[in-house]
Amino acid sequence: QVQLVESGGGLVQVGGSLRLSCAPSGRTFSWYAMGWFRQAPGKEREFVATIKRTTGSTAYADSVKGRFTLSRDNAKNTVYLQMNSLKPEGTAVYYCAAAPTPAYASSISDFTQASRYDYWGQGTQVTVSS
User: Fold this and answer.
1) Residue-wise over 49-66: b if at least 16 C-beta within 10 A, else e?
2) CA 11 to CA 105: how far, in whole Å?
3) Position 44 pLDDT exceeds 90
4) Which element (helix H / strand E) includes 80?
5) Alpha carbon 6 to chain centroid, angstroms
6) Quick one: which of 47, 28, 25 has its CA closest to 36?
7) Pick from 17, 96, 114: which is nearest to 64 by CA?
8) Are 76 and 53 in contact (CB under 8 A)?
9) Alpha-carbon distance 8 to 19, whole Å?
């Protein structure tokens, strides 16, 4: 069974920064794309960012472009979501998700959809205080 282990959430003031990490544990799993989604209280889960393992290609939600950076360290099989200039609307539970190799050619933009991911972490709380 594949488990995704997230870390790095916490409380930060408006304009501050946090870095989230996510790594698979359990059986060996070579993910194709790793994404982050978030869910604020009373709202639906939404896409934040995703990265392709092989090329490092990324895609971001418009709401975080220019402030969040997603990177990967393949040697550690870990992805990092660097979040800068955090806003109060960034308060949410952040979920890491992993997608296996697709059956057909896909672009990174395809992985903005939650349905493309087979494995999900438990979530880590990020609270941005004003």
Assistant:
1) bbbbbeeeebbbbeebee
2) 39
3) yes
4) strand 78-83
5) 9
6) 47
7) 17
8) no
9) 6
The structure tokens listed for 123 are 């979530």
Structure tokens at 21: 């990490």
Q: What is the pLDDT of residues 59-104, one digit of tens each?
A: 999 999 999 999 999 999 999 999 999 999 999 999 999 998 888 8
Residue type, 35: G
- Which two structure tokens, joined as six digits, stand for 17? 């920064």
Evaluate whether 61 touches 35 at the Cβ level (below 8 Å). no
**Which residue is it, tokens 């099989």?**
77
What DSSP string runs through 31-43? -SEEEEEEE-TTS
